[in-house]
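task queued by scheduler; priority normal; single chain, no ligands, no partner chains; default sampling; output format set to structure tokens
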Amino acid sequence: MKPAFTSPAASTPDELQVALGQRLRHLRLRRDLDQLQTAAKAGISEKALRNLEAGRGSNVGTLLRVLKALDALDSLDALAPSPTVSPMALLKQAHAPQRVSRRRKKADAGLS
């Protein structure tokens, strides 16, 4: 069973990092890879992978390398989906102003 992410408001960043690391570990094990193989495939040290899986001080670059090594980069679509444009948004965009107008000062309003 994969660890569940709880409500982000109820979790600290450290707790979320641990949960993410546990999910990566489960994914790696489902792919039948050990840490040494995965680290080599990702181009990182085994210690960096252990730290990531333990939720201890990793970085986005390490996360992306491991996701790529596990053939799981498509999971980023769930994290940050590509924006889509709706037909209604296109209609509104056609009539959008080309620039922002400034408010006139009272003194300027009398001159016009």
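post-processing summary
- DSSP finds seven helices and no strands in the chain.
- The first helix runs from residue 13 to 30.
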